[in-house]
Amino acid sequence: MTLYIFYFLSFLAVLSAFMVVYSKNPVHSVLYLIVTFFAIAGHYILLNAQFLAAVHVIVYAGAIMVLFLYVIMMLNLNQETEPHKSNYLKLAATVAGGIFMIVLIGSLKGVEKIENLNAANQSAGLIKNLGQVLYRDYMLPFEMASILFLAAMVGAVMLGKNELK
Amino acid sequence: MVQDTMAQTLHGIPINAYLMLSAVLFSIGVLGVLYRRNIIVIFMCIELMLNAVNLLLAAFGAYRGDSNGQIFVFFIMAVAAAEVAVGLAILVMIYRNTKNTDIDELSRLKW
Predict the structure, then answer these.
(1) Owning domain of residue B34
(2) Residue B102 pairs with which residues in a beta bridge?
(3) Of A12, A60, B33, B109, which residue has the fewest beta carbons closer than 10 angstroms?
(4) Which residues from B are below 8 Å from A35, CB to CB?
(5) What is the number of other CB atoms lying within 10 angstroms of the CB of residue A83?
(6) B34 and A97: CB-CB below 8 Å?
(7) CATH no. for residue B79?
């Protein structure tokens, strides 16, 4: 049963990822990317990482994709305004991407099975466990992330404001 | 009961399946970066690659029963959010100056 769920989510993720690349309208790309993110959130749930799935949906599907949509609306790209590459370049890109995928899969094919599954620790993804690890072992990086966000916010505002000439 | 189904979930799916899925998603991201000219779509494909790596990190963490992998995924998400904010601000700035979102317009950055 869970195997079928895995296959379905994988198929959904890969298909909508392809549609991100091949759809002509950028708004459609954003919507397909949201579908991909929901499929990946489903994978997180399959991996017992419930909190991670929730954060993924909130941050990616909620915040980042809304940011993308706002920028697309602001730049008025909701129609096909994009000049396309020549067919030769498209073919070259497809061949290069396909060869890259073959090399990656081929190199990962012979990887050994991971040993010593720590099946007893099924609660690793629960919020209680994660909170303890995050606030005890990773306290300093957690605080540094807030400084990073402050810097990013200041940078975005600085870049986004109009020139005051 | 719940613990049993969870264990079966992890044991029923080999880690190689997650490796393959992440490799395919990452390759589609690379393909998109090479294929498209629109900066926004290229940016979205970069996000896709980032998510493929995140998924693999979470998968390995879950298979080892280790929380640290998921913590790292959190931090990667935080950095990605900051990166998207700054990147989209730069993109709006580029659009204001060049009036389009074609990546080939920026070839003068080479010099």
Answers:
(1) 2-104
(2) B38
(3) B109
(4) none
(5) 11
(6) yes
(7) 1.10.287.3510
Query: How far is B107 from chain A, CA to nearest CA, in Å?
Result: 15
| Residues in CB range of A6: below 8 A, 6 or more apart | A43, A46, B13, B17
What ipTM is given for this predicted complex?
Answer: 0.87
Structurally, how many domains does chain B consist of?
A: 1
**Is B62 part of any domain?**
yes
Encoded tokens for A103: 């090399």
Tell me the pLDDT tens digit for each residue of B21-35.
999 999 999 999 998
**φ, ψ (nearest 5 deg) of residue A89:** -65, -35
**A117-138: pLDDT as tens digits:** 555 566 666 788 888 888 988 9
Q: Fill in the DSSP letter of residue A63.
A: I
**Inside any domain, residue B55:** yes
Helices assigned H by DSSP within chain A: 2-22, 26-46, 50-56, 65-74, 87-109, 127-136, 139-160
| CATH level 3 topology of A1-80 | Four Helix Bundle (Hemerythrin (Met), subunit A) (1.20.120)
Q: In terms of Cα–Cα distance, which of B78, B51, B74 is closest to A127?
A: B74
